[in-house]
Amino acid sequence: MPTDAKGYRPGKPEDKMGLRASNTATIALEDLRLPAEALLGEAGMGFVYAMEGLDAGRLGIGAQAVGIARRALEHSVKYCAERRQFDRPIKDFQAVQFKLADMATRTEAARALTHRAAARKDSGEDVTAFASMAKLFASETAMWVTTQAIQLFGGYGYMRDFPVEKLFRDAKVTEIYEGTSEIQRIVIARALAHESAHG
After folding, report:
1. Measuring CA to CA, how many Å separate 61 from each of 6, 30, 88, 105?
2. pLDDT tens across 41-79, in order?
3. How many other C-beta atoms can be found within 10 angstroms of the C-beta atom of residue 107?
């Protein structure tokens, strides 16, 4: 759709909580008409294209969430080696070690699931349920890992001078766009029901 078409009106950029380097704006379409040659793809295939786009988008968000979690883990490991309490780095305390171990394990599990879904897409297999699994698990992992990172940083984690605060804000949207976590669970459950009915 050409942006100079009559009836096309962009909205103002939104002031978002996270992903602030990426602009988000509404688009209003008011009595907009386009000629037949403006059609992309085949007529009547819009829903199919949208669903295929969702699968790819969910895989991308799964990868994005893994990246956010990995970065939060890296910052946490570095900070825990530098921050000292009682004359020793806090990484020496078992409670901190357990938290870092859980953060690393969940992040690697999310990464493996996202890679598996991407491999299915690359091989031409149906990826809908796996893309939803990857997005669901990776996004909830990113939110959990960044929350733990803020806990490890303490008061510094809440300050904008430190990176984990931004990662926390960026993680939240991965649970929302391209379908919320609740929607991903519906997609996965429907796939399981379909598989059991036809398997």
Report:
1. 34, 31, 38, 19
2. 998 888 888 878 888 999 999 999 999 999 999 999 999
3. 25
- Give the residue numbers marked as catalytic: 178
Greatest extent of the chain over all pairs of C-alpha atoms, in Å: 73
What are 112's two structure tokens?
Answer: 């493996």
**Cα 98 from Cα 109, distance rounded (Å):** 16
pTM: 0.88
Per-residue pLDDT at 199 exceeds 80: no
What confidence tens digit (pLDDT) does each residue in 9-36 have?
998 998 888 888 888 889 999 998 888 8
* Crossing angle for the helix pair 46-82 and 94-122, to the nearest 10 degrees: 150
- Nearest Cα to Cα of residue 34 among 6, 15, 60: 6
Alpha helices (runs of H) in the chain, residue ranges in sequence order: 46-82, 94-122, 128-153, 163-174, 181-198
